[in-house]
Batch of 4 targets.
Target 1
Amino acid sequence: MNESKINTYSYTVMPQDLDGKRHFRAVSLEMMLLNIAGKAANERNFGAFKLIDNGGISWVLLKFAVEMSSMPVEDEILSVSTWVGKVGSLLTTRNFEIRNQSGEVIGYAATEWALINLETRRPINIAADNEIAECATGVTVPVTLPGRLTVPEPDQNTPRHTVKVSYSDIDFNGHTNSTQYLQWMLDAYPIEKIYESRIARLEIIYVHEVLYGETVDVYHMDQNDGPTLFVVKDQKGNDCVRARILWK
């Protein structure tokens, strides 16, 4: 791969990244990767704020997948490399490699994005932007993006956590921040199970945006083969976000 197309950053694990058992929070992991994606896009001249200010368009995350062989600890300095995988007319991928303080690879992540017009909320042609298209490397990571990720329809016995979307949930695109859905999911899950386990693989599909003032229901379903399925539904019963966590 052309090294000039790779952006690498350091990240120091802070106390706020840790939970009550001093485990690295999954929300901090996703937030770290998305912030690094934004920083890399800014340096390549196609960051969200430039696109918003110049054309009223912005990036929207559609799919997210990460696999970790181990989790970092407090004060550890990570090295995270990121690059654009492929660029199509409506979709683009961005990949990540995560190394610990000893230089060992401890994780990979893959993401899929679209560009939307913030007024119409409709997708636009990504490949038409030469600065984005020229960054495509064609290089993948050993982490596959989720497919449809089917989640069974919840019933009256499925654990439910209801959330009303508030100010702190909303990002600069005017809808719920991508990481906030994961926060809702883990808030809905029994804390003792989170403390007893570690996330080995996390995959999320963002289906439909959720706006300020709306109310959503968060459901989780433990599967016999190990993973836990999550779904966030609006009050009409539509899926907004689907996710799966494989515990270790």
Note: Residues 160-247 form a domain with the Thiol Ester Dehydrase; Chain A fold (CATH 3.10.129.10).
Target 2
Amino acid sequence: MTPITLDAVDRRILAHLQANARATTLELAQAAGLSPAQCNRRHRRLEELGLIGGYEARLAAPALGLHVVAFVNVVMERGHIRELSKFKALVGDLAQIQECYAVTGDSDYVMKVVARDLKSLSNFLMDTLMRTPGVQAVRSTVCLDEIKCTAALPVD
């Protein structure tokens, strides 16, 4: 894979889009120091290169009644490879799982889960996750306070 070379203008466009994905072409052009036409071409090029994975609205979890965030470590049974596709499909289907990563260390997976309250989290862990074929153990850590939550990547 050939590395993508970004100049300062590309980085300004990406930084501005991370801060405000709804920016108009004119706003983006002003932030990048380009004409709207030039900026539009650059913006499209960055999308075509795959540097912009998509655009989404970030919803406020508490406003939707989701007051609990937990990080869940999942340990799979030995030989879990047989159940891997089912596990991945389940993870993809469950809206309360926001993120899931295969990791090294004591756990096989770490996921970020949201829930309405502690009882809902407990029900999810006990009735859904622990009953998933291949899952041996689950350990959760409940978030007490959000200090920083961003999807923004360093572009400089």
Note: The first helix runs from residue 8 to 19.
Target 3
Amino acid sequence: MNLLKQYTWKNLYSEYQPLMNSSNDQIFAYEALMRSSPKINPLAMIEYARHQEVLYELDTICIQNAITEYPFSYYHSHYLFINIFPSTIVHDDFKNFIGSLLKKFPHIRERIVFEVNEDVNEVHIWTREDFSRRILELKSYGFRIAFDDMPIARLSFERMYTLTPDFVKLDHTKSKDLSTSLEKQQLISLFLEFTDEKMRLVLEGIETEQDLLTAKQLGVPLLQGYYISKPKRLEF
């Protein structure tokens, strides 16, 4: 099935899921998530785009959608997290793309967090010199960096140490049944030892009150998940 014939880039839009500050239950930021109409699984769209060698085009369109559909007033009070692939960051046209974004949307400076996707197909890019250089360039432009879906492994801590992201995100596999899993509680506590106010930990996938309370008790600063709020479109 030719997905690009059925679902053009114009059918894409963003929904937003909040990240909650665990200390006061206030919304800290929103993460933009790719959606399409008619509905199609975002992972299927991504895999097809990669197969057709148009993943950069898909990724940059989603970035632009996330920025334009995010209410202007929200930028003053809530950061905007936007997913991005490592292959997009090292793409030859990316620097010009970022320049055009800053020219068109000057208000996004210091308010956007690029959430670098831990895609298994692109794990080799993380060790490239141009990837590290582009991360530093993004920071110099006023963007913040988050590492998404970090595996609990030695390599993760090495990346955190060398590239110093502003946020580190753990996925739903670390939060599911957190309240009853001593092992998961210990793993999250380990990450908390390596993070601080300059590199804040985000725990995704909070789906029950018990897991929310446990995450708060552990001291996880930022929380995200369906129990807090499902993704939705935002009103201007």
Note: DSSP finds ten helices and eight strands in the chain.
Target 4
Amino acid sequence: MNVSLRQLRVFLAVAQDHHFSRAGEALGLTQSAVSRSITELEQALGLQLLHRTTREVALTDAGRLLQAHVARILEDLESCLLEVQGLATQHQGRVSVASSPTLSAHLLPQCIARCEQRHPGLQLQLLDRIQSDVLHSVRSSEVEFGVVIDPMSCEDLSREVILTEPFCLVLRPDHPLARAAQVDWAALDGLPLVLLDQASGSRRLIDAALLAHGAAARVVQEVGHTTTIFSMVQAGLGLTVVPQLAVPGAWFDVPGNPAGPPKDQPMLAARRITPVVQREIMLVHRKQRTLSPLALQVWGLIREVAAEMAPGSLRRTR
């Protein structure tokens, strides 16, 4: 059955006015166009809907039944369309975003704070998960989109790179390598390393960089959070390689930061590693899914915050 919305609107106008010409005037159609539309509708339904005479137009039993239902359906449809159209200017609601731990700790808090300031009625709900679970949440539509390290194989996802940052070496300031402003990857050969575990989106890149520059990794500990890593480095268990975003520079001995650490806070040193190896931070969502207007607002806000955090040197301001 091929019945159009236009045919139903024309039929309802004729049924209400009992006149082809007046119905046409109300709809901006000629009388012949109205008549043709009614004929096509009757042919599609296989029923006569109107009794036509030279003086009047009267509804058949089938016409009266259709009129009763179509009037309600069109009213509901109009209400639905207005509600959907209103989403374009909506400023209240919740947007769920999944993010891997390092990004959840060092990028998303500023995004959430700015969202609250700029859009008080919009709640950014963060799901803090390992990267594989973030990608699963995106693919299953549990969240609107995810914030991840380049997952490489993701043909089913739309991606936008929002930040590129280098890896750096974190070590105790009394370690011999801390005397230099930058350290070669090859210098890490055979040294004890405390690294993020394989669930991290960065670990693949770190392992590849060590291998590419001839540094045989001697991994003594693998953990899921950089806070744990830094505590282990402070305890003298080894050195670590982390993305620059993870370095809390307010209490690190980094070039150009004369403030030093807070009282009673053990100091660590952060050094650039050469040749520079960078990771790409990106926003991802399902290709088959169009982001809602609210989600697009949050997407743009995270992009904006990330652009402001684009690294230059290892220096950080408090």
Note: The CA atoms of residues 12 and 71 lie 7 Å apart.
